[in-house]
AI-2E family transporter
Amino acid sequence: MGCGGTLRGAVMEDPFGAVPRPDIVRVAAWLLVTALILAGLYLGREVLIPLAVAFLISFALSPLVVWLGRRGLPRIPSVILVMAAVVSIFLSLGFLVGSQVRLLAVQLPMYQSTVRAKIDHLGESMKGPGIFDGAMDMIDTVQKEVEKAVAQNEEGMPQTRVQVVPTPESPFHTAIAWLLPVLTPAATAGIVLIFVFLALLDRGDLRDRLIRILGGSLHRSTDAMEEASSRISKYLLMQLVVNMTYAIPMALGLWLIGVPGWVLWGTLAAVMRFIPYLGPMLSALFPITLAFAVDPGWNMVLLTVALIVVLELVSSNIVEPVLYGTSTGLSTLSLIAAATFWTALWGPVGLVLSTPLTVCLLVIGRNLPQLQFLDTLLGSTPVLDVPTRIYQRLIADDPEEAIEIASNAINDNSVPEFYNLYGVEVLRQASHDFLTHARAEHRLRVVSGMDVILDDLRDEYPAPELSSGLPRVACIGGKWETDNVACEMLVHALAFHDIFAVQRPAGVLTARYLDKLDLSGIEIVCLSYFSREPERSASAFCRRLHHRWPRLRIVLALWNPPKNFADSEVYSRVGADAVVASMDEAVQRIEQLLSPEVARQRKIAPRPENDVDRVATLRKTGVLDGHAREELDALAARAAEVFDVEFAVITAIDAEQELIIGQSIELPGDISREGSEMITHSRVDAVCDHVVSSDETLVIRDAQRDPRFADNPVIGLWKTRFYAGAPLRTSEGMVLGALCLLDTSPRELTDNEVELLNEFAADVMHTITAYQPSLPETLDEGSIPTRS
């Protein structure tokens, strides 16, 4: 996706209608720019590495500076305090580690005899005849012959002794030779500290300059900066927590085992684990080696190895998955490739910085359309959704892997939900490519593969035993083979809702076909179409079915709904009793036609168990007398503006009524409460009552396509199609109503928008509960509190 978006501009259309060919000049320009960037990164590493380290540290320390600023401390003292604390911690840790190193340096000569004895013991245990003895004897013989020949050659030649006397160096050169190795890292550390101080001090100015460099949309640049800062800060914090949860138990364990320098090895483990992959192995090597040298036996070595293995297993399988989550958003392969790439450019420091730097590239790729290929290459988010993956495996003639993908999807959903979310979409893509890109073999693979998938799903997820012994619904494909496959899915999905359905073969609409069509006992026929222009064919089919079976009811399933699908008058001429566009809608419509009373009851939300207490809590707030009307109207207007919808309302669900306690615009409706001037509806018709019942945010993309709400009188009165309601929840967990977004056109809400809507609902709830009147009230069902 990203690569295609990047190279789209690098393709030229052939004026003679041939296949598009790439623009060689533009591709060469991209390659040249990439080469120059890589050369600049490599040649400028002496300057860029301190800068990168400084910005990395500033990302980690910035939340502390912000936290101090929110506590009233000015910016400069906050930065100085944080820097002083960090430097003090590092100096103290360095002093402690240095003392441990000096102690080990004194003790190491004492361990030489132990190491020599262990090596001798190992050598003796490995002595004896073996398959390599002959080879070792031959090597010894050759070595002795060579030494003998060299000795004979030296006896026949005069020997001259040459002694090289070095020129004495001045004290100045000696001091320089000693100081240079120390001054270079000290100077680099000083530069890094200065950069960190300036980055924390001028954070706003640096942010503005980076936004200016990114250019383009201000919203997109701001999102990129916030996402990069959030991801890197979270990654560094989680990395620090993970390292500390590994290093502290390791140091304590080594202390209990008796390994010298346990503080040093714990600190080394915490630092080395910042290096991906190699760090844990390197940090484990030193304490194991020292345990080997200290203990004359093997107990200390075995206990040290066991300690490290257990800590590594716990950290890798429990701590890291829980803490990291999706903090970086990088795939495993991209992490390895990034570590290799940055190590080749900047050496060991590049290995440490590889993950944060690659996160920055990922964020840039997500927010700049020209570089979206970086998101595709580096991100952990799947680049193909589930239907596309299944469809691709079917085209590749690999139905086994397609079955595995489908089974994994069903593990997170039910079988009917899989058909509704993924199954129909696979067939939709296949029908789209049917007359364009697909070859004959591709069409055969898709249809045959879908038959294999459905057979496997019916065997692995059999439908429960049906209460009715005779079929009441027949599903017939309209035109293509994909129409028949959709019928198979619908039959299986209906069985999970205790509806016995069968599939009847499709055919040419002739008198002979209708004579062979067995619809005895069938009450509903569902006609399946993926064609984008099915009106003529569907009209003829419905007309002939009604002519032969007058009492038959017909549901027209248009899996590829045309543009005029919203115009009900277009399809009222077809003769169908209902028109559906999804598997879920088809199941609900058929269920509604077969059992109208059951469907009517399902439209009514069940009342929560604590409904009496919930109503009492609502009345205690005093919001029903309209005291907070202006504030709630303002919040509703703000919500409508922020989410860009036609209007927003704030509702409260009383014992038997829904009351509009806040609205962004004037709406039609009955006003039955004197003084409060609130629009009221029956609770039975309240869509928000489903929010109260479920205590979850409810999003209805298109109310006309949801049989539960398509005939709702409030939806019809306000002519809305989109609905999103977030619960107004008290601190005790009682839902008093909902904050609702409504629009006249279908739309979606992203996960971030749903989260923001819930935050808005919390603000509304705070406004409602801010005023707590002390009113004597009657809490009987249906009563209204009155002032004394």
Residues 1-21, 774-788 have pLDDT under 50 and may be disordered.
